[in-house]
Amino acid sequence: MTPVLELRGITKRFPGVLANDHIDLTLEQGTIHALLGENGAGKTTLMNILYGLYKPDEGEIFVNGEPFQVRSPSDAIARGIGMVHQHFMLIPVFTVTENVMLGEESLKPGGFLDRETAAKRIREISIQYGLEVNPDSYIKDLPVGVQQRVEIIKLLYRNANILIFDEPTAVLTPQEADELFEIMRSLTAQGKSIIFITHKLREVLEVADIITVIRRGKVIGSVLPSEADQSKLASMMVGREVKLELEKEPARPKETILKVENLIVTDETHQVAVDGVSFEVREGEILGIAGVQGNGQTELVEAVTGMRDVEDGKVFLIGKEVTHAVPRKFTEAGTAHIPEDRQRDGLVLPFPVMENLMLCTYYQPPFAKGAIIQWEYVMQNATRLVQEYDIRTPSIFTAAGSLSGGNQQKVIVARELSRPIHLLVAAQPTRGLDVGSIEYIHSQILKRRDEGVAVLLVSTELDEIMQLSDRIAVMYRGKITATVSAEEATKELIGLLMAGVPLEEARLQIHKQTTQSETIGGAN
């Protein structure tokens, strides 16, 4: 059988970097082909070539056995190739039908949009592939999981047969992720073919038909899920043994470092995003904030680091009120901040790596002597941190904006964790990182906790929250709906809370499920 897609000898070079080194990849019809690799391994570059965003320096692409010259995304779409991006490309104030029609508008006599015909076809696609969605709903009113279905419908509406899923579960609850996997299986059962990019090893083993691992621009090998486990895949990705389970000592919390009282914060549209939130974080503990992206976590982090105005409520840091303090005051008081948006809030992209590594303290000794920057120390500091945190950069003089996303994240983590701190506010600290880097950063966060640092961890990665946190608070629609201990927390419980189920009702549902399972097991 002829593969639906073949990449042969794909090579792509950037200044100082060989991103893709003669990569071969074959996608069979009706299969899910997972693509794994460290951050900066070349996965995204490869998909950008396939989607027409980059032109390869060498190599060929074949679709259904025929050579394919892709010059732009419109060429890819015309040949039945579509991509579901991690960050949705939807217009919130438009309906599902209007979003799906964009770029494929059909008109009625008189020049009016033929929404009725488009809505009918959307309903047909929804039924055929198990993508339940109301064509007349506004995007802003839909849960994240349903918005992702709209993205998939957009591709099917354009008759895509090859679908690229780029980190598709990053913004989903565990239950929504399971629903997505069922949809993916339904798509392949009806002849569609999927390239699945993710860094979550468990998901790859659960849903993929074949797994290809890329390391430093080269294909290391392909394996069947039945031939691999998480440890083997992690070793293939990183080139060494990786500890997937953290060795975590019990927390020894002491004095309160961060205290938040009845905090109210609005978003850019002046709508309440944080609605009367109260909590405290003590030295020597990690408080994890779980929740689907968009439930007020971003605004909460910005408020407690001085980046966003507070409408009401109070913030205390080591006993002193800092409700309206500017970010520099938080930094000088011993707060480290790993921001959610690394490019907007964490880096000055045109600046070299060495200068980004001293952004918080550039005006203080030993980086400065009076008004004079001590460049020799700046370079020594950068060289040490680049090696210690495995920042993949051609040199310390390279602009931060030219690094891959994960290496940009490593620059921020290295800068924030390499100075004395009392409080670490970490928002999505391992987003875009490979398993080796995640292992290292998690160990560093735990090390700071054990040294007495208070850690506020905000993450949409439930595995990360479960592994690191000593207590877990769940945010839903701007409120903290429940706080549970690490001992009580299970993925099922936290997943239900993330979906808005009240704590007692969630406990009851899990108890019923457990009882039913035990009854069925006993009957067998």
UniProtKB/TrEMBL annotation:
Protein name stated in the entry: Heme ABC transporter ATP-binding protein
Topology versus the membrane: Peripheral membrane protein
A Pfam cross-reference name: ABC_tran
GO cellular component, as recorded: plasma membrane
Single GO molecular function: ATP binding
Residue ranges annotated for the ABC transporter domain, each copy included: 5-241, 258-502
Main subcellular location of this protein, as a coarse class: membrane
